[in-house]
Structure formats: structure tokens, C-alpha cells
Amino acid sequence: MASYLITGASRGIGLELVKQLLELPASQVSKVFAVARNVEIDAIKELVQKHSDRVIPISASVNNTASLEKAVESVKGKLDGQGLDVLVNNAGINGLTTGGIKGMEVDQLSQILDVNVIGVQRVTAAFVPLLEQGTQKKVFNISSALGSFALASYIADMPTDAYIISKTALNMLTLRWAQQYADAGFTIAAISPGWLRTDMGSKDADLSVEQGVSEVKRLILESGKEKNGKFLNIKAAKTDDMMWEYDGKDIAW
């Protein structure tokens, strides 16, 4: 049995991942902590009604240290003396940049970095003591292929500068954690979930959220220490209308 904590669980990838994890037997997934600023939404309430003994809503914001401290205590109390097994840092925000890099507002960059990078640091640092007590010691950061230096030339004109910068920074943050916690038995990796049809991804994206998250779930379940410090890509059959290729191979940083 494994316990999971998912941030950004009120919508999109996070909500769908909570749903798909709960579809697995309790012998495989014992508890799912669904972390979001607002856990009073209908979708989370429905999951609680259906899986009252396995899903636990936790109200917290990744850019609020005090709320995360309270969240740690809540999770600790619900683990009944056990450790936390898997952390998925999924919470993130996006934003368009008008006028190119010169026109990128410093306030926008600061806000996106605070959630997408510093937020991941806050959450991971807060929960790593519980992860150290867990049996799997897995941390997965939901990143994006947009953050890859190797692919930068393909997205030079994409008007999401602050978001792209944040995902590149997140990748290095992931790698630093992976390197420094390898000897402690951790598996820490970044996952590019693909361009998915969520509110953030838009209706024009390559894949449905269900398809992309199913692959994210597979990577989380199957990845062991051999994937520590890697940038993982999902696998999906290529069609002519897809922008990206999902070959299941590690992405170059």
C-alpha cells in the first residue's frame, strides 16, 4: 500500500490524477491527499463521498508557507505513524507574454516563478521529513517539454516566456534534489505530461487529460531509482495533427 500527495488537485491534471489513483485497489493506493487552495469544489466532494476512507482533501496554497505547515501536520495525523510514499508537485500557473521577452512584466515573471518553482521548493522541503519515513520515497514534478534547452529552438516564438523560464528552472530544481537525495534512496524526477486539453492547455491541445494523466500515472507507478534525476516523457501514438512527439523516451534537459 502506498500513500500519495498531489498538489493542484482541484482541476486539470491534478484532479484527474487523484481520480485515476483512486481507481486502483486500496492494496496498491491506500490514501490520496488532494491538496488545493479550494477543496470545497463539487468534484472533490464527489470523490470524498465515493472514497471517504481513501481520499483526504487538504486546504493549502503552494505559495503560502504557513498553510503548508498546517498541511504537513494534517497529513502527518492522517498517516497514523506511517510515512508519505509519493509526492506529486503538480500545482502550476501559466500566462501569455505580450511584446516578446522585452515586454514580459516582472510582476508576471515573479508570480509564475513563485508558484511553479518556489512553490515546488516549499512543498518538497515541507514534506520531505514524511517522505523519508515512507517506503517508496518518490517525488515527481510536473514540468513541460517547453522547459527543455534542447527543444528551445522549436518554441522560440511561443508567447509564454515566463512559463517557459519557470519550467526550465523547475527542471534544475528537480535535478538538484535528485542528486542530493539519491543516497537516501529517493526517486526524484520531472515529468512532461504532454499538451493536454485542460483549462491551461486549451481545447486545441494534442491529447485528452484522461490519456495524458493515464501515462503520468504509469510513469509514477513504474519508475524506480533508475529514473532518479531524469526528465520523463509520456508515450502516445503519433497523429498528423499533434504538435509534439510522445515517444516515452527521456527528454534532454
UniProtKB/TrEMBL annotation:
InterPro entries: Fungal_SecMetab_SDRs, NAD(P)-bd_dom_sf, SDR_fam. GO terms for molecular function: oxidoreductase activity. Coiled coil: none annotated. SUPFAM superfamilies: NAD(P)-binding Rossmann-fold domains. It comes from the Eukaryota. GO terms for cellular component: cytoplasm. PANTHER family: CHAIN OXIDOREDUCTASE (CSGA), PUTATIVE (AFU_ORTHOLOGUE AFUA_4G00910)-RELATED (PTHR43544:SF36), SHORT-CHAIN DEHYDROGENASE/REDUCTASE (PTHR43544). Belongs to the short-chain dehydrogenases/reductases (SDR) family. This is NAD(P)-binding protein. It comes from Aureobasidium subglaciale (strain EXF-2481).
